[in-house]
Design brief:
Structural class: alpha+beta
Mean pLDDT: 95
Number of strands: 14
Helix content: 25-40%
CATH superfamily of the largest domain: Gcn5-related N-acetyltransferase (GNAT)
CATH topology of the largest domain: Aminopeptidase
Distance between the termini: 32 Å
CATH architecture of the largest domain: 3-Layer(aba) Sandwich
Number of domains: 2
Order of helices and strands: EHHEEEHEEHEHEHHEEHEHEHEE
Largest sheet: 8 strands, mixed
Radius of gyration: 21 Å
Shape: elongated
Length: about 300
């Protein structure tokens, strides 16, 4: 076999071939449509490399940087099956970590950590990938989860709103007039979620933002359905979960408003609204609160090994 030549990804000549490699290597377990794949590949923060053998792409790696910190992510690496175990994958990782380091990145996360992502970590249903990254020096520290709720059977337990009613807390979908104060809220309390809230507002998805309030905003959560203009990463697994899926995420409550049942109230109200929108499978991504969401009937769908590596 000829030695692989590693070069920077060319969006004109390489886009189709890298997607075909993804489909061959991961498409059975993780079917992903071209548009969802391109959302990651085409992002302005993405840096990708391809491995070429005899003039053809046989593997690729996708990384991203986070402009608000010195953190980056190794989002995805794929090598065609007949070229695996030939050090192509480890060479792709080596060159990518070097490039990220030159760009000022001090810590790399497997999966997420950039501006977009497919998985929060390494899926546990890809054991070969788990072993591969371990051989590259990554250590796993914890497990995160994606959850699924069957909204066709959903009904909010009677106890959920008892505490919020006691504190006179209401739940409301946003409108255009709420946009500025919501962005101010995120910037102050949850800056890591500012970008997705900003994207919802830029795409005029005001009704996809649910917030809790008394005299001021106390908590927020983002909703997504197939009617949303900005879908982010919520609907990318429709190939597995079906077209009538939706979800919610980036749920946050201010510190001084916690222990009043607001978070559970937001999760319950979000579930009710999505059910009214004919969402059947409700996806909750990248969480550790398995037992907490289980109170509303949500169950573990996928698990991920989490890893951060200092450069």
């Amino acid at each position: 076999m000829s030695k692989a030549n590693l070069r920077k990804f060319d969006p004109v000549s390489d886009k189709r071939s890298v997607y075909e490699i993804y489909q061959e290597v991961l498409g059975v377990k993780w079917p992903l449509d071209q548009d969802s794949f391109n959302e990651v590949l085409d992002h302005k923060s993405t840096v990708a490399y391809v491995a070429i053998v005899s003039g053809k792409a046989v593997g690729f790696i996708i990384t991203q940087t986070n402009s608000n910190s010195r953190k980056g992510s190794l989002i995805l690496i794929c090598v065609k099956k007949e070229f695996q175990r030939k050090r192509i994958g480890s060479e792709l990782v080596h060159i990518s970590l070097g490039i990220l380091n030159k760009r000022g990145v001090k810590q790399v996360q497997l999966g997420a950590g950039g501006k977009t992502y497919l998985w929060p970590g390494v899926p546990t249903n890809l054991p070969q990938a788990i072993r591969f990254f371990k051989s590259c020096g990554f250590k796993y520290s914890e497990t995160s989860y994606d959850l699924i709720g069957d909204l066709s059977q959903y009904s909010t337990p009677s106890w959920v709103y008892e505490r919020t009613q006691k504190y006179n807390i209401g739940f409301q979908l946003a409108n255009e007039k709420d946009a500025d104060k919501i962005l101010e809220f995120e910037k102050k309390h949850f800056p890591e979620w500012y970008d997705p809230f900003s994207a919802k507002i830029e795409n005029k998805d005001y009704g996809d933002i649910l917030y809790a309030k008394d005299n001021e905003i106390l908590g927020t959560v983002l909703l997504t359905s197939r009617d949303s203009n900005f879908k982010g990463t919520i609907l990318q697994w429709q190939g597995i979960l079906g077209l009538n899926m939706g979800g919610f995420g980036a749920l946050g409550i201010t510190k001084n408003a916690r222990d009043k049942g607001i978070g559970m109230g937001l999760a319950a109200r979000a579930s009710e609204i999505l059910k009214q929108m004919s969402v059947e499978k409700c996806f909750l991504g990248w969480t550790w609160l398995v037992e907490w969401y289980a109170k509303l009937g949500y169950k573990v769908w996928r698990e991920y090994k989490m890893s951060w590596k200092n450069l």
